[in-house]
Amino acid sequence: LQLNKLEEAANAAHTFFMANPEHMEIQQDIENYKNTAGKVNLIDREAKQHMEDYSAGVRHYDKEEYELAIDFLERALKGYYSEDEDCQIMCEGPQRFEEHEYLEYKAGLYEAIADHYMQVLACKHDCVRELATRSGRISPIENFLPLHYDYLQFAYYRVSNYVKALECAKSYLLFHPDDEDVLENAGYYEGLLEGTMDPDTVKPRKEAKTLLRRHKLESHLLQVAAAGLGYTYKEPNYWNRYGARQDEHSVPSSISSEPEDGPRLSLAKKPMPKPDRELKEGGPLLYSDVKFVYNSQQLNGTQRVLLDNVISEEQCRELHRVASGIMLAGDGYRGKTSPHTPNERFEGATVLKALK
């Protein structure tokens, strides 16, 4: 900024803000840069390209622009596997044994070697989490890698490339072999191909098989090493199936809108009803008895508001009582990026737990 390079200053501020979205001063600086330089399209210098491509692919998918969705999602997969190789290499470097530092711990040769390779192995094993986590976030996008294949299997079906659709469906099933929707989809694609080729010749993608085989081997080695060293290793759920495509595109579907001899697709999405009045931040409240308390700026964030009289005191006490017994740490954003910062704690509960 002191060198009067407003564009570079705006991009630098935007990069910092993407990693620190709770920083209100930087947000105001960005608005000032936009007003001064007239710059709207800011660049995140630390953005992970494979995630940018994935997000672009999902946007095109949601717009039913399947050719473009395929292009970006395939590019995202290629970038993902390239980044995975880099992550594996970076884990080969020196490791810090923080738990020993305060004791001035002096390990013997074999202990030091074992400690080093355990750290390297754990680092490599966690690459799938690292590659699924956006800058400034502590939680990864759930089910991130399998989701690529889930989106692609339907996108390829919509452009009538049934071989690729089956290939991607089988790739997804490597991670979740009991997923009923994708199992049905794979069976449907096989039926479409039976007249022209043997569907059994269509195999899951080699890179997916290789990564998953390596990941399982790493897990086994970590568990064996942990048992030998006398401590418990708990394998994280890296392929959490709560992350799923947020649409109704299951082929075939139990709710059909097509004749029996054609593709059975789920019913089309219904447009959201238009509200009776315009909804915007700072606008009027929808209910007269609800009291406004704080807005986003006063709560040091964006898209936040504090309201009173939304529910009764008795309802509030009952809600607090229920929540205290069923809430678990985590956001449950099912394949979407969590809006919460590292400085915020968020606990969620499933509808099933709430009903119980």
Automatic annotation (TrEMBL):
Family: Belongs to the leprecan family.
GO biological process: collagen fibril organization
Cross-referenced Gene3D superfamilies: Tetratricopeptide repeat domain
Any Pfam family matching the protein: TPR_leprecan
Name under which the protein is recorded: P3H2 hydroxylase
GO cellular component, one term: endoplasmic reticulum
MF GO annotations: collagen binding
Keyword entries, A-Z: Glycoprotein, Signal
UniProt xrefs under SUPFAM superfamilies: TPR-like
InterPro entries assigned to the protein according to its UniProt record, in alphabetical order: Collagen_mod_leprecan, Leprecan_dom, TPR-like_helical_dom_sf
Chain positions covered by the region annotation Disordered: 249-278
Organism classification: Eukaryota, Metazoa, Chordata, Craniata, Vertebrata
Domain Leprecan-like alpha-helical positions: 2-192
